[in-house]
């Protein structure tokens, strides 16, 4: 059997590592670096991934260090350098996009949402082979889809191939109703992955996966 090298991955806004774990179980990546400011979540990531360097600092501060030519942070942890990162994944804080948040127009939420731009800055600097952004379903419609369109425009201008869609996590084994917005990108010369076929039957009312942007309906390749 052909052994395909695993992608060297940086997980930004990693939490306790759920997104990375999915990639690990799929056998496609090895998360060598993770960034998570909340110490309890970062510690959980360390316990489950002892080979990963987990940073508990502001992602903007870390990127500035790397861009300034620094090799380590203040704790002596080695920073990934340009050319090291083959896969960039992450779920920027989503409180500002969530329909559950009654205060999503306040300055704090605007700041949270700006972390999407920080995540795109990581992509611009490292230029990984593959990129994945995960967020709540409202990410695709927030502010008349402006955040989604900005994200796609930035990736296209970097030269990436892009696709986006809404997936139901329950169709892939998660024991809950959980629709998530996914943006996938692949560098020039790489094959842009399609979304995986559902593995489980799930309530039809929870599987409205098409989205409307600028009066156009977009349907993912898995929508029946």
From TrEMBL:
A GO term for molecular function: DNA (cytosine-5-)-methyltransferase activity
SUPFAM superfamilies, per the entry: S-adenosyl-L-methionine-dependent methyltransferases
InterPro entries from the UniProt entry: C5-Methyltransferase (IPR050390), C5_DNA_meth_AS (IPR018117), C5_MeTfrase (IPR001525), SAM-dependent_MTases_sf (IPR029063)
Residues annotated as the enzyme's active site: 94
Keyword entries, A-Z: Methyltransferase, S-adenosyl-L-methionine, Transferase
PROSITE patterns to which the protein is assigned, alphabetical: C5_MTASE_1 (PS00094), SAM_MT_C5 (PS51679)
Annotated Gene Ontology cellular component terms: nucleus
Top-level taxonomic group: Eukaryota
EC number: 2.1.1.37
GO BP annotations, alphabetical order: methylation; negative regulation of gene expression via chromosomal CpG island methylation
Enzyme class: transferase
Alphabetical list of Pfam families matching this protein: DNA_methylase
PANTHER family: CYTOSINE-SPECIFIC METHYLTRANSFERASE, DNA (CYTOSINE-5)-METHYLTRANSFERASE 1
Record-stated family: Belongs to the class I-like SAM-binding methyltransferase superfamily. C5-methyltransferase family.
Protein name: DNA (cytosine-5-)-methyltransferase
Organism taxonomic ancestry: Eukaryota, Metazoa, Chordata, Craniata, Vertebrata
């Amino acid at each position: 059997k052909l052994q395909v090298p695993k992608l060297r991955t940086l997980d930004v806004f990693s939490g306790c590592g759920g997104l990375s774990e999915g990639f690990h179980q799929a056998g496609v990546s090895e998360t060598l670096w993770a960034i998570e400011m909340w110490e309890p979540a970062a510690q959980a990531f360390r316990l489950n991934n002892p080979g990963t360097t987990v940073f508990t600092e502001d992602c903007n501060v870390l990127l500035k260090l790397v861009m300034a030519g620094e090799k380590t942070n203040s704790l002596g942890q080695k920073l990934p350098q340009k050319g090291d990162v083959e896969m960039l994944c992450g779920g920027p804080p989503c409180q500002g996009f969530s329909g559950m948040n009654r205060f999503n127009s306040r300055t704090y939420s605007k700041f949270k949402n700006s972390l999407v731009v920080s995540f795109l800055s990581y992509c611009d600097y490292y230029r990984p082979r593959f990129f994945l952004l995960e967020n709540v379903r409202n990410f695709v419609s927030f502010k008349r889809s402006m955040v989604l369109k900005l994200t796609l425009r930035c990736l296209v201008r970097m030269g990436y191939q892009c696709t986006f869609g809404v997936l139901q996590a329950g169709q892939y084994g998660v024991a809950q109703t959980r629709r998530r917005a996914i943006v996938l990108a692949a560098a020039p010369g790489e094959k842009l992955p399609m979304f995986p076929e559902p593995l489980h039957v799930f309530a039809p009312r929870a599987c409205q996966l098409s989205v409307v942007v600028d009066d156009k309906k977009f349907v993912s390749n898995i929508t029946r």
